[in-house]
Amino acid sequence: MEGRSLLPGSRSVVARLLAVLRGVIAPVLILVVASMGFVGWQTSHARALSVYDEYVYVDYLAKIPTEGVVRMGEETGDTARQALACLGVQQYTIVVQPCRGHDFSKDAIYPYAGHTGADIYTPAYFAVTWVVAQPFMWAGMDLVHAGRLAGAFWLALGTVGLWLLIRLLKVDPLYGLVAGLVVIATPAVYWSTTYISTDAPSLAVGVWMGCLGVWVWRRRRAAIVLLPVAAVAAILLKVQNLAAVGAVALALLVGVMIERSSADRPLRRNRLAGVFTDARSLSAIVAVVLALCAQVGWLALRAAIALPSSSPGVDTVRQELTVRALVTEAFRFLTTVGGPAGLSGTLGVVVSDVLIVLTIASLVGLIVGFRAWGVRNLVLAASVLVVALLLGPALAFFTRLTVGYYTPLSERYGLSLLGLFMALIAVYLSTALSRRPLDRAGRPVITRVTEDVR
Asked: What pTM did the predictor assign?
């Protein structure tokens, strides 16, 4: 009798394990394998260095174990110069010293007169990538190939995080799996994770900041503490990641304001004060403040350790920051989702174009049709849209203020928003394609605002 009584419980445990395998382990494994397979396949043959500054990134990566940080005015080392001589740069014809030579001392024939252009970055990305690349180097790979393979780590971290974020937003996890696989096909992922690039962590930064934001909203104490820490880490990886930090922080602040305004409180002053005493709001505000302080601190340190240099500087397009330029930059990251598509094949162009249409349609649909999609989704879509529109002008103005001129921004600077765009597309499509109960007017049944925001 005792053996029989244990049988139903055993079946229940097995059923739960199978559910976890099917619902969690399987999609995570698929995304990890797909990420590793994509990066491994793309890096399986020697390719010319990326046009997106891979030459100076190789130099930074090579100097991590010996110098730790690359200083402004510093010359590039032999490792990067030999990689340039042996591999060349895509779409450019560069004549330098012989690939198999041992003397790479002629500064004048190398980009930036032999000086680095990567000193604007902290060593955070390069240090992590160097550690991840070590097993490949122990197997006999050169630094360039091993560093490129490390992109699989960043890509897997991003695709798994995207799946988790979509799941946390109460969307069918299948959408998360499909979204992760679609992201892998974008030109942005190709250029950022199959070459050595400071853009590699940006997808992961965006989606994991989103996950932390959801957990903070649900009042998870650990997430409330971790959000500011993660924001600092995001900025130290790349300053443009501030877009994801800002979008998450704005969504939390607006969400708390709506929650407070809908609560039954006698005095408006108390409701407003409650916004700034709510742990979720404070976490969001502290996250943005600490992130900005981290960037200011890095700029001060960079200036303090700079070397005297005769380098001509980065050769780039210099323009005046006009109103027309600001308008162009405002829509830069909405009209180039998943880009740059111009340097990619047919598949990359198609995927990028489709994502642009879906992103704009989803953002507008969630905002305009908030009565059908809910206030929570309105807050999320509006916050991401506002940040996406402000990011370009803010970066352009910052560039003009710090270096004295404006240069058109790269699509890559909005990469941390790609995962948030994909999550909102999943929210929009999952609701639009599902059959929800309708009221007498033929509209989907909607929960109350206070319940919906939760």
From this structure: 0.89
